[in-house]
Amino acid sequence: MIRSTDFVGWFVGLILGLSASVSVAEKPADSSIYGDVERFAEGDALQGAKLYKRYCRGCHGEDGRGGAHTFMPHIENLTKKGYIEFLPDSYLYTAIADGGEAIGKSSYMPAWKSKLSDREVKDIIAHIRAMPTF
Ligand code: HEC
């Protein structure tokens, strides 16, 4: 006779086994802590680095930790460990293309969509993802 506790154990084992194999298949080993946070596939970080230097560095600083602390709020966020990793790329895209107000933040953050193409915004996002966090 099959006892019901055996059946429950088997069933729980089956579910755990299934979910483990699904999550292994979905995520590359080195990005597992970022879970399901959205990342664009496109974007050339090298190209993005050049654009960042030209358009963003003045306020956000060479390393994303800010430069204009005197009058800018929270401008060090771009490479803040435990924070930036968890923002989806579409959020960064809106912040960059439509400006700070579009994400409920400071309007000192300009909207860039008239100056930067879709491709260029994605290149800059790839660069932000490649920068070390602090
Ligand atoms: C004139 C100064 C200035 C320039 C130039 C600038 N930013 Fe910003 N940026 C800001 C400010 C101020 C904020 C809002 C910070 C806050 O309120 O938390 C911000 C916010 C952001 C955010 C959202 C961060 C968050 O924590 O939500 C992103 C992403 C961003 N900027 C990217 C860029 C990129 C990429 C460029 C270059 C294309 C750029 N910024 C150029 C001032 C600037």
CATH fold-type name of the largest domain: Cytochrome Bc1 Complex, Chain D, domain 2
Report the portion of residues in β strands.
Answer: under 5%
Order of helices and strands: HHHHH
Instruction: List unreliable stretches of 5+ residues.
Output: 21-29
End-to-end distance, in Å?
60 Å
According to DSSP, the number of beta strands is: 0
CATH class of the largest domain, please?
Answer: Mainly Alpha
CATH homologous superfamily (4th level) name of the largest domain? Cytochrome c-like domain
Described by strand count, sense and barrel closure, the largest sheet is: none
Q: For the residues shown, what is the average pLDDT?
A: 83
What helical percentage do the residues reach? 40-55%
Account of the protein in words:
The chain has two domains: 4-31; 45-130, Cytochrome Bc1 Complex, Chain D, domain 2 (Orthogonal Bundle). Helices cover 46% and strands 0% of the residues. The protein has helices spanning 4-26, 45-55, 57-60, 89-98, 118-130. With 134 residues, it is mainly alpha-helical. The protein starts with a helix and ends with a helix. Mean pLDDT is 83; it is low at 21-29. Helix 2 packs across helix 5 and helix 4 packs across helix 5. The protein binds heme C. Heme C binds at residues 55-56, 58-60, 72-75, 77, 92, 95-96, 100, 103, 105-106, 108-110, 112, 124.
